[in-house]
Amino acid sequence: MSTIYNLEPDGYLKELEDTIRQHFRYIPTSQGLSDEVFNEAEIIITRLGTHFNSEVINRFVKLKCICTPTTGLNHIDLVAAKEKGIAITSLRGETEFLRNVSATAELTWCLILNLVRNVSAAMTSVVNGDWDRDAFIGYELKGKTLGIIGYGRLGQIVGDYAKTFGMNTVAYDPDPELEENSTVKLVGLDVLLQTSDIVTLHASYDVNSGMILTSNLLSKLKPGAYFVNTARGELVDEEFLISLLNTDRLAGVALDVLASEYSGSNLQSMLSEPMHHAVTSGKNLIVTPHIGGVTHDSMRNTERFIVEKLISQYSNV
C-alpha cells in the first residue's frame, strides 16, 4: 500500500480523504515539506502551494508520483521529475472533463467587467467617503472587439460568453486544426493585438514555449486597450506591459497570475516597482492571487476526478 502525503489538506473533502484511505496509507500535513515527507512519500498531493524545483525533487527518496488537480504545471520542474522517474498526475490533456469546468473563464469576465466599469476604484472611493459617479465613467462591451490568445478550452468558453455581450471576437492559436472548426475569426497575433479593444490570454505555458508576449509584440497593442491574463505570468513581459499602463498607452490591466508567484517571496517583493507605481498613482490595475480556478465547485469536482485517476493508476502498486 503506497504512502500518500497531502500537502494542502485544508478544505479537502472528507469523503475524498476517506476514499483515499481505502486504497493508500494517507497522511495529510499542513507543515509543508519535511524530512519525513522527503523520506517516506511515494505519492504527493498538492495544488499550487509548493514549488517542486529540481533541488526539491532530488531530495525525495521514494517518490513515484506528484498528483496535482491543475492544468498548468509550471510549479513542477518536469525535466527533473522525468529524470528521477517521477510521474505527474494532473488535469493536463483531460479535455472532455475540463469542458465542464468554467471557473477561470468566469473570472476572466469578472476582471473584464471590473476594468471597463472601474468597479474596484469606484468601491474604494465610496469606502473613502466619496460619492462621485462621474469620476468612474466606463465603457459598454457591445460592439467592442475581444481578442483571445489561446483558443483552446478556456479561450472557447470565454468566446462563447462574449456573444452574450454582443461583442466581435477574434482569436489567435497556433493549432492549425482549429481553422476548420472555429466559430470565431482566427487571425495572426499582430492583427489581434492591433485591433482588439480587450485582449485576454489563455495559452498554456511550459519551459519550451517560454514567453509569448514579448515587449516587441506588446508594443503592438491598440492604444486604449485592456489586457487580462488568467493563464500564467511567465507568458508575458510583465514589466513592459505595466509600463504601457503607467504611460497611459493602455486603459487597464488585470492579472490573476504573476511570473514571480512561485518564488516564495512576500507580496511586496512579488509586485514590481512599476506595479506599485500603477497602484499608488491610480492606474486601472487589478492583481488577484491566482484565484481563477478557485471555486468550491471546481475544486470539489477536479479533486474528485484526480483521486479517481490516482486510484486507477496506483491503487494496486
> What is the global morphology?
globular
Helical percentage:
25-40%
Q: Which series of helices and strands comes N to C?
A: EHEHEHEHEHHHEHEHEHEHEHEHHEH
Strand % is 5-15%
Total helix count?
15
Annotation, overall tally of beta strands: 12
Radius of gyration: 21 Å
Catalogue the unreliable spans.
none
Structural class: alpha/beta
- The first-to-last residue Cα distance is 7 Å
Quick one: biggest sheet?
Answer: 7 strands, parallel
Average predicted confidence as pLDDT: 92
Strand order of the largest sheet: 8-7-6-9-10-11-12
Give a written overview of the molecule.
By secondary structure, the chain is α/β, with parallel strands linked by helices. Helix 6 (103-117) packs across helix 8 (153-164) and helix 12 packs parallel to helix 14. It starts with a strand and ends with a helix. The longest helix has 19 residues, at 296-314. It is built from 15 helices and twelve strands. The model has no long low-confidence stretch (mean pLDDT 92). Strands 8-7-6-9-10-11-12 form a seven-stranded parallel sheet, sandwiched between helices. Strands 2-1-3-4-5 form a five-stranded parallel sheet. The protein is globular, with a radius of gyration of 21 Å.
